[in-house]
Design goal:
Layout lengths: L1 H13 L9 H4 E17 L6 E7 L5 E7 L3 H6 L12 E9 L5 E9 L4 E3 L3 H4 L1
Parallel strand pairs: 3-5
Antiparallel strand pairs: 1-2, 1-4, 2-3, 4-5, 5-6
């Protein structure tokens, strides 16, 4: 009995959680496109996905913060996109697909800057 308990304890200690990567379609609805223009407020350049936040001001002056999920940092770096590409305070236009839960989150496919530069921030899966 003690040997069995020891075996189970060792197996549990060595077990690593299995973290499956979700499909973009599981979180975002491609039939609900989002296109916002605002000021880049915050960038979280970390795995598993880069997140960036944009403050959008409506016609009445009310500010709504939108969160956008992008590709993993490594994927962006391989495309030549560094964290310096997303500068806090810049005016950006972001296109993506809205979160299925209806929140002000979306997949961030394309970021266009005031000078016309485009940065494709989506995962490869979203590009297909």
């Amino acid at each position: 009995m003690t040997r069995n308990l020891l075996t189970v304890a060792v197996l549990l200690a060595l077990a690593t959680p299995v973290l499956g990567h979700h499909s973009e379609a599981a979180e975002y609805d491609s039939t609900k496109p989002v296109k916002v223009t605002g000021i880049l407020k915050k960038v979280e350049w970390q795995n598993p996905h880069v997140w960036f936040y944009v403050d959008v001001t409506d016609g009445n002056g009310k500010i709504t913060t939108w969160g956008f999920s992008g590709a993993p940092p490594g994927a962006l770096l391989r495309r030549g996109i560094t964290k310096d590409a997303l500068k806090i305070g810049e005016v950006v236009n972001v296109e993506g697909s809205r979160a299925r839960d209806g929140s002000n989150n979306a997949s961030g496919r394309r970021v266009t800057f005031a000078d016309g530069r485009n940065v494709f921030t989506a995962t490869n899966e979203a590009a297909q």
